[in-house]
Amino acid sequence: MSRSAHPAGPRHADVLPEGHYSAPPADLNALDAKVWAQTVTRDEHGVVTVGGVDVKALAEEHGTPAYVLDESDFRARARAWRTAFGTDADVFYAGKAFLSRAVVRWLHEEGLNLDVCSGGELATALSAGMPADRIALHGNNKSTQEIERAIRAGVGRIVLDSFQEIVRVAHIAQSLGKRQRVQIRITVGVEAHTHEFIATAHEDQKFGIPLAGGQAAEAVRRALKLDGLELIGIHSHIGSQIFDMSGFEVAAHRVVGLLKAIRDEHGVELPEIDLGGGLGIAYTSADDPREPHEIAKALTEIVTRECEAARLRTPRISVEPGRAIVGPTAFTLYEVGTVKPLDGLRTYVSVDGGMSDNIRTALYDAEYSVALVSRTSEAAPMLSRVVGKHCESGDIVVKDAFLPGDLAPGDLIAVPATGAYCRSMASNYNHVPRPPVVVVADGASRVIVRRETEEDLLRLDVG
Ligand code: LLP
Hints:
- This protein is α/β, with parallel strands linked by helices.
- The protein is built from twelve helices and 24 strands.
- A hairpin with a 5-residue loop joins strand 17 (about 330-340) and strand 18.
- Ligand LLP binds near residues 138, 240, 321, 364 and 421.
């Protein structure tokens, strides 16, 4: 369909239908620096560029859809976390947000450690040369093989998640003639979600060992008795996409309370605490995330204050940011396939990907932004819903957003802040191959995870 023949559709209904959106932005061509990777800008022709490469060239060379990741932004964010926490603390990047061998090398070079939560993530980390002593192994149901492999490799810590696992890890370590450094993950009764948190006595979820009812204290008692384990600390992770620091404050207070009880009962001062990840990022202009230095200052102050009050030596702190490092560094580049205006409602814009490359909207009702990136437009804003190509009506990428009213098939649009939990949660639903991860830096692009092919899909089908 030619651009001029494209029907006007519901641009500005007098009464807008129900949705997440507020008013259309003043300038649809503007790119809010909060939600886009650091080097993203528009060139003199109005085409968006990242790392000095324009999106039309990226689409031509690598195809769409594609995750496009800004390497200098990733490194800058990793370094900002490292610098903010200094040498008295450790930053473990949470690999579940997005992991590949290139990412492991960048983290290594920037002085970060790595949190892995499966054998596959561990294999990726080791194969890219991350020193094992800088790796932490997580998971609520690690297999015997995963535990054995981690201990043999010499991982810096295993985070114990249950009473069975305390015994299991101790036995495996002992049978290998090793003493494994471990932390115990506890649940402190804090549930944090985005702008609010709830402090409760109990937590109804699968991770960790509850502080409530003395279970965490009992876990410590058992771990301290086992020769195969060296208990180095307590771990707490309270949630994800959090903006409000008060949840961390309550968590730190409760973790330090346990350290004090351990000192009083066993005469042992555990040297480390880990406060997990969970710091929020901006998906839309409405989000206001904290900077790493503010987070580091707040967490260090809370722990120091609580330890002074409890007359404990301040333990070494570690944190595990995933989303806050990789999330903002990538966008997903799509080509518009069809544009379908529904009178009095909104315009459905179908792209060549969807819920297989970004499940977060369908799964969590997540909000995203979107922009036309292959050109600028002065057309009036059009209330749009960006949807994928899957056989499912819940296949929505961006629920409600304004795009220019002259949007047409062949235009490139991009959804920012898709670096975390998009490629790592991607699926092959409808046998749609997963998109590549393309890295841009210094005016050049390269593929770090290649596009899946139909041959890849068929290779697994051995029936
Ligand atoms: N540490 C532990 C023990 C975790 O369980 C997690 C995330 C992190 C660190 C990293 O959290 P982050 O800084 O990335 O928020 N798929 C969901 C998020 C699941 C997070 C699971 N654990 C999403 O797309 O929002």
